[in-house]
Design brief:
Blueprint lengths: L1 H5 L8 E3 L5 H4 L8 H6 L17 E14 L26 E3 L3 H4 L2 H4 L1 H13 L3 E3 L2 H9 L5 E6 H10 L3 E4 L4 E11 L6 H11 L2 H10 L12 H6 L4 E4 L7 H12 L8
Parallel strand pairs: 3-4, 3-5, 7-8
Antiparallel strand pairs: 1-7, 2-5, 2-6, 2-7
Helix pairs in contact: 6-12
C-alpha cells in the first residue's frame, strides 16, 4: 500500500488503514482534514480521544487488550499466574508457555511500567526459554490440540472467540492490562470521494458501527466507547495503554524488546 501511495497509484480507495508500525510513512499521503477540530466544534460526532491530537486527520476505530490464554485440561485456572511476573516462576521455565516473537504484548506494558522495568522483564521472560511462535490464531490452535498449555499475551478478542467455540480454552486478564488502540483509519489524499470518506470515519466511530464491530469482528470494538465488550471488561482495571502518546513509538518499543529477547542477528556486509 505504501509503495502504491508513493508511486501515485493508490486511487481506488477513499479511506485507508494506517499501520502504526510504519505510521510516519503513511501520513504524507493522507487528506489533511482537521477531524479533531471538526469534532471539537460538533461538525463531526466523533469522540475526541479517538483522534490523533497531533496528526489530526487520523482516527482509531478499535482496540485490544492482551491476556493469557490456556488449556483448562492441561493447566488449571488457579495455576495460571495472577501477575505478569508470575511467568518468571520456576514452574514456567523450559518451554512451558508460548510467546509471540512480535512483542506487542510486552511492549504494551511500557506505559505502566516504564522502559527499564519492561526491558528487564523481557530479558527474564526470554530466559524462561518459552516456545517462540508467531500469530495468535496459530498458537491458540496449538493450545486447543493440547500441544502446549498456555499462551502469553494474545488479543482478548481472539481468546474470547476461541473460548466461545471450545469450552476447554480459558483466558485470564492480568493487571496492568496491556491495551492498544488500533485500526487507525484516514481519508486518502487521492480519494475520489473525500467527504464520503469523512462521513464513513464518523460512522465507524459511532455507537451503531461499534456494535457491528463487536458482533462481527467479533469483540473488537474500541474500549473508548461506553458499552462495548472491551469497555465492559476493562472497567475498574488498571490499564497500560498504548494511546496517542505512545502509538508512534510502538515500533521502537518493539525493536527494543526484541533486542532484549536476545534473538541472533545477521551482520550486514
Amino acid at each position: 500500500m505504501i509503495q502504491e501511495m508513493k508511486a501515485g497509484m493508490a486511487k481506488s480507495w477513499d479511506v485507508n488503514y494506517v499501520a502504526f508500525d510504519m505510521y510516519p510513512e503513511y501520513l504524507p499521503f493522507q487528506k489533511k482534514f482537521d477531524i479533531l477540530g471538526m469534532a471539537q466544534q460538533g461538525v463531526l460526532q466523533i469522540l475526541q480521544k479517538m483522534i490523533d491530537p497531533v496528526n489530526r486527520h487520523v482516527v482509531v476505530v478499535a482496540s485490544d487488550l492482551q491476556v493469557v490464554a490456556f488449556n483448562k485440561k492441561q493447566l488449571a485456572p488457579e495455576k495460571v499466574p495472577n501477575t505478569w511476573e508470575g511467568f518468571l516462576r520456576e514452574e514456567f521455565s523450559g518451554r512451558k508457555f508460548m510467546l509471540d516473537i512480535r512483542p506487542k504484548d510486552v511492549a504494551s506494558l511500557i506505559p505502566a511500567w516504564g522502559m527499564e522495568k519492561t526491558m528487564d522483564f523481557a530479558r527474564k521472560l526470554a530466559a524462561q526459554k518459552p516456545v517462540w511462535i508467531r500469530g495468535n490464531s496459530r498458537a491458540l490452535t496449538m493450545i486447543q490440540s493440547g500441544e502446549y498449555s498456555a499462551l502469553f499475551g494474545p488479543n482478548l478478542s481472539v481468546a474470547m472467540r476461541v473460548e466461545k467455540k471450545d469450552p476447554n480454552i480459558g483466558y485470564k486478564i492480568l493487571e496492568p492490562v496491556p491495551t492498544r488502540l488500533n485500526e487507525a483509519q484516514s481519508v486518502l489524499g487521492a480519494a475520489s470521494n473525500p467527504y464520503a470518506g469523512l462521513l464513513w470515519l464518523e460512522f465507524l466511530c459511532s455507537p451503531a458501527a461499534q456494535a457491528i464491530i463487536d458482533q462481527y469482528e467479533p469483540y473488537g470494538a474500541s474500549l473508548l466507547i461506553p458499552g462495548t465488550v472491551q469497555e465492559k471488561v476493562a472497567r475498574g482495571l488498571k490499564l497500560s495503554i498504548i494511546d496517542w502518546e505512545h502509538v508512534t513509538k510502538l515500533e521502537d518499543y518493539q525493536k527494543k524488546i526484541t533486542e532484549a529477547y536476545g534473538f541472533p542477528r545477521a551482520d550486514a556486509k
